[in-house]
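Quick illustration, no need to memorize.
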Amino acid sequence: MKKFIIPLLLMISVSVSSQITTGTPTSEVNRWTFGGGIGLGFGSNSAFYLQASPRVGYRLTDDLEAGVVGSVSWQTSDYYKSTMFGVGPFANYYFARSFYVGANLQQYFINYKDKLYDYKSNEQETALYLGGGYMQRIGGNSFMQLGLMYNVLWKENSSIFSSGLVPNIGFVVGL
């Protein structure tokens, strides 16, 4: 019985790995990519934060991708309420199929209300993020991206953001 089961298991494992590696990859047929990230946070004083950032890209070459990314976030607490929308182009260059460098220009539209002082504000801010990171394959042509970006237009005393440095985690399908 052992002489029958062991060769059978070996044949099954070989056929499974051969099914994964043969055939035309989907990424060669379709050059469109889709992805983004989501965020959720809680804090003191009934603070709540929800954020979504969808993206659509097109692979210009096997290693260069460009597209549009958007973002929307809602923040609220006992003291303030804020809504922020952002949109802009991005470009990523991939190397060694595990790393990337990228640029992302975002135009943000911010609506802020201070509940304590009944103060309202509508502002805009432009951000140019430069950085890169690591990509981990999570199946087929899908990847998780872990990176670090820096807003080179960030100014400490006039920006709505507390820092120019932004860690990011996102997912991309189609690479």
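Helices lie at 2-21, 26-29.
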